[in-house]
Amino acid sequence: MEDIRNAILSGADAATIAALPIPATYRGAHVRLADVEMFAGLDSHEKDPRKSIHVGEVPTPELAPDEVYVAVMASSINFNTVWTSIFEPIHTFGPMQRLGRESELAKRHDRDYQVIGSDASGVVLKVGAAVRTWKPGDKVTVHCNHVDDQDQSAHNDSMMASNQRIWGYETNFGGLADMAVVKANQLMPKPAHLSWEEAAVNALCNSTSYRMLVSQNGARMKQGDVVLIWGATGGIGAYAVQYVLNGGGIPVGVVSSSDKADILREMGCEAVIDRKAANYKFFNEDGSHNEKEWRRLGSDIRALVGEDPDIVFEHPGRSTFGASMYVVKRGGTVVTCAATSGFMLEFDNRHFWMRLKKLVGSHFANYREAWEANRLIGKGMIHPVMSQVFSLEDVGEAAYQVHHNMHEGKLGILCLAPEEGLGIDDPELRAKVGEENINRFRRAGV
Ligand code: NAP
């Protein structure tokens, strides 16, 4: 692995990279099947990713014809890293066991450990016999939509595929490692003006926000739309704010501290709600909904932008969903991709049907959407939202911070990259885009 790292760092050509032997083992952050009951009986917040995530050598799986080995220079923490490591809402060995029943090669995924991680930037080391569009030496980022493209249901919109999975969450051989195994149709060009870690943090969250707001499969935001964004400096929210601003919309960002509110204003989001200061109580003591508080949120939004939101970017779930469905404009759309605070959601259907509102479920992004979202990063029109960088050995700590909402934006992880700031191939574009845009979140976490 050291030879691979050195070759990449010294700018070795494609032929040299192609000639490098693939090591029999590699360093990967993983969870273990034997541990899935280790947090039984504990509340969610007591389950500690630092105890369940191990970093160590794992065997290198063989390569399928449509796959590539990627030398991972950097990766990132996603909320799914938290879910995997606390074994909630399900442990992720079940999906891999089901995947293992699909074909001979798919059996590789069904192991007693799972290398986790759904983002990566790096260099293609070796391609399978069926790979045509990528070659050793290509600098790439990886999106996490894992589909079987021989299945008819994977065509049209591959997120609709019957066996669609999230790489590094519902599959093995993920990105929080020195090497990863991915399908060729997960690869995208690495944005040349970004370092390895800046390039690694985007694909999952950026593509998710793109589909939710911009794609025809999502809320189809148009110029002038008011968009309420929960967790507006979090992983997906911070990209959502950028999409609304780029698309001529009016973001209303909700955050939980004055520091986060400052970041939003610096991003150009003028309408900001500090939910902690506002202290909304959407639930009464007995667990029933408090419609008065939904109305108070609605009034706060009107006070800021003069109207109700056309779109609500929803993901906290149980704690906010009733309010989101209430405040969205007559005929407006709530688009949701998650339920961090609880999956069983309630809302008042009277407000929903009488005001002809829409609810759109959204999940990651198809290859085309991920490619478009990556293209916008590559052009410097959407920026990474990385606040801190950790080493691979500290993945557990980084996941702990995301679990406890101690972070802003995204947390980058250095894998083969020995230090930050490497891998920038287009300093001119970088200068044009501006360090203040690329590093806006850096001052927050450090
Ligand atoms: P994140 O970085 O932790 O950001 C989420 C933000 O939501 C937090 O920063 C917090 O912001 C806010 N929040 C948390 N709990 C809240 C609550 N009870 N009420 C209101 N706001 C709350 O996570 P992320 O990466 O943005 O992901 C958010 C969710 O989306 C996760 O559940 C994740 O699994 C899911 N997700 C789904 C997909 C998909 O494809 N389906 C893709 C990406 C993420 P403040 O404290 O500042 O308000």
What would you say this structure looks like, in words?
With 446 residues, this protein is α/β, with parallel strands linked by helices. The protein folds into 2 domains: 2-205 and 365-443, Alpha-Beta Complex (Quinone Oxidoreductase, Chain A, domain 1); 219-361, NAD(P)-binding Rossmann-like Domain (Rossmann fold, 3-Layer(aba) Sandwich). It has 18 helices and 18 strands. It has helices spanning 2-9, 14-19, 49-52, 79-86, 93-100, 196-200, 203-213, 235-246, 258-267, 275-278, 291-305, 321-327, 349-354, 367-378, 395-403, 427-433, 435-438, 442-445, and strands at residues 25-32, 54-59, 67-77, 113-115, 120-127, 139-142, 145-146, 165-166, 179-183, 187-189, 226-229, 250-255, 271-274, 311-314, 333-336, 358-361, 386-391, 410-414. The strands form 4 sheets. Strands 3, 5, 6, 9, 10, 17 and 18 form a 7-stranded mixed beta sheet that branches. A 6-stranded parallel beta sheet has the order 13-12-11-14-15-16, sandwiched between helices. α13 links the parallel β15 and β16. α4 packs across α15 and α7 (203-213) crosses α8. It is globular and about 65 Å long. The model has no long low-confidence stretch (mean pLDDT 97). The site of NADP nicotinamide-adenine-dinucleotide phosphate has 30 residues, from α4, α7, α8 and β12. NADP nicotinamide-adenine-dinucleotide phosphate binds at residues 78-80, 204-205, 208, 230-231, 233-237, 254-256, 260, 275, 315-316, 319-320, 337-338, 340-341, 363-364, 402, 405.
